[in-house]
């Protein structure tokens, strides 16, 4: 407000109707990128949390099974005078010991996997380290890992401890012994509930992972609007004192380009202030359209501002839709011209032909000439941080717009572009031996970092999802195998009374598939709610994509079928005589 008031007093005419908005340098540099990455990391952390829940459910099931097998022992301890809370402390201590051993093993495994995560580090595709740090097991990570380990050890060890120590009917439990190996109905309900929870969470993870992988796949094949193959790029920052007046800068650019075009293996060459999807701050401009009132201060029209040499758009491989491109006749003394993108034409003149229309740049305290539109080109993905959408772009001749922006050289080759680096460098130094050159790379190398954040998310979420699927399958198999082993007598009796193998198969698999289908149903509801958080991370894909939901449900159903079939097959092969011997 203080800045706004002071400007209002100093520039009453210019300031009328305008307001001031103050933002941090961090926000100006990163824009929506920081929020985008933070949302991605939040989703990934949620995925890790879901995977932890699946692991804990598996461990809780194992602890419950172990508790059932120790009921006689625990009942005997109670009979000999051990208090309930003493038994709970003992079982919790055992659970905590297992958790600590698992946590230690996890830290060792994490240390081995760090190089893989480092290779996927999104910071390598972005020029800002403001919100990313190196992947390393520092003190904070160790403390957090210890906290999570202790928390899960207590929370998921408490239920088995309470169930195991709750031996109120001592003598019946001591006498029954192995006859209670199948546990109580309450125990079986806990087994079933944990398995259903595992399957539901696994389905949610798989759906989220599937959506992110499919989105990443689509982004890889998005139309960039130009041909990136066989392009060599490099950057030159020209000294203001050395290349002044501006015509000296233009002469340097013309001379370098003319010599490069005569190199063997060079098809075309040009310069621009920003190459597409560059990892540097892009240059934007506010503009006015002739014949229309000035834009509302709250809705200022902005375009990506590209100052280019003749032949630049041809070198890039941009498709011309109407008119012509920037050529060598567009000099300082010529009428100002501009080539605009499809999106620019659509926003500036909706439903009209852009050819021959005029626009100009707007900046406080400066007056720019009107520029005539001489061409319309296909949209090019120019902005690294907004590549998912087509932004308006205009291309103005380098000779007509004085600027001190870096000069980005683009060379299209008929051979391997890296083989031309030495020759191009020699030409630049022959024109100016002191001119520094940086960022020498092929366009494909530059583009390799564009999708690094999406690649990071897709790979990590996909890995979590597959791991969750395996853990859920192992958990379901374990519960079904445990159930079969503790129903040996029942199964043997059924066979002795005439039950066929297929009836045993139906019995075991029917129970397992009921749990699987219930878990899938709950998981679909959970996934439908969770995937809405992915909307901003997906490209041309609905967060409730029916194909993904259907495919994942089918995959989980088939996995559950296999996990149930293996124990059921073992049950079919039981010898009734051997089975009944234990009863």
Overall tally of structural domains:
3
State mean pLDDT (0 to 100 scale). 82
| Main pleated sheet | 6 strands, mixed, barrel
Shape, per Cα inertia axes: elongated
Please sum up the structure shown.
With 583 residues, the protein is of the alpha+beta class. 55% of the residues lie in helices and 11% in strands. It folds into 3 domains: 1-30, no CATH class; 31-222 and 451-581, no CATH class; 238-435, no CATH class.
Fold topology:
Layout: H1 2-10, H2 12-15, H3 25-30, H4 33-69, H5 71-79, H6 84-119, H7 139-165, H8 170-176, H9 185-220, E1 231-236, H10 246-261, E2 266-272, E3 284-289, E4 302-308, H11 312-316, E5 320-323, E6 337-341, H12 342-348, E7 358-363, E8 366-367, E9 371-377, E10 393-397, E11 407-413, H13 421-431, E12 438-442, H14 443-447, H15 452-486, H16 488-496, H17 501-530, H18 546-572, H19 576-581
Parallel strand pairs: 4-10, 6-9
Antiparallel strand pairs: 1-11, 1-12, 2-11, 3-4, 3-7, 5-9, 6-10, 7-8, 7-9
Helix pairs in contact: 4-7, 4-9, 4-15, 5-8, 6-7, 9-15, 9-17, 9-18, 10-13, 15-18, 17-18
Entry keywords:
583 residues; alpha+beta; four-stranded antiparallel beta sheet; 19 helices; elongated; six-stranded mixed beta barrel; 11% strand
Task: Write up what this structure looks like.
- Helices cover 55% and strands 11% of the residues.
- The chain is built from 19 helices and twelve strands.
- It is elongated, with a radius of gyration of 34 Å.
- The chain has three domains: 1-30, no CATH class; 31-222 and 451-581, no CATH class; 238-435, no CATH class.
- The chain has helices at residues 2-10, 12-15, 25-30, 33-69, 71-79, 84-119, 139-165, 170-176, 185-220, 246-261, 312-316, 342-348, 421-431, 443-447, 452-486, 488-496, 501-530, 546-572, 576-581; strands spanning 231-236, 266-272, 284-289, 302-308, 320-323, 337-341, 358-363, 366-367, 371-377, 393-397, 407-413, 438-442.
- Mean pLDDT is 82; it is low at 123-133 and 178-182.
- The longest helix has 37 residues, at 33-69.
- It is an alpha+beta fold and 583 residues long.
- The strands form two sheets. A six-stranded mixed barrel has the order 3-4-10-6-9-7.
